[in-house]
Write a structure and sequence with these properties.
- The protein has five helices and no strands.
- The protein is mainly α and 104 residues long.
- The two termini are 27 Å apart.
Amino acid sequence: MTSQFSPKVSEILSFSREEAARLASSSVGPEHLLLGLLRMNDGPVMDVLRRLRLNLPQLKYDLEQIVRQNDITQPFTTTELVLNERASNILKLAVLEARMQHTQ
């Protein structure tokens, strides 16, 4: 699935899958996508988060706690990237936005 995206997006999706596995989640959700983005340490998203003066370690901790409370399941052991419906919708919207930005 990641072959249709840029190398940077593919890396974020890979990080997101790793975060889902680390937190024993059954699928990759929006929280995992944000955790994957936080692992990048650079780029426009991180610039925005820093400009907002967010406490990034606290944000990471809070996201992990949300995932642990909401997704008590068996560990995620597949190597296939499995997005839940919410994460899939986010990715679809991001693709649409990218297409719109390239056509303007």
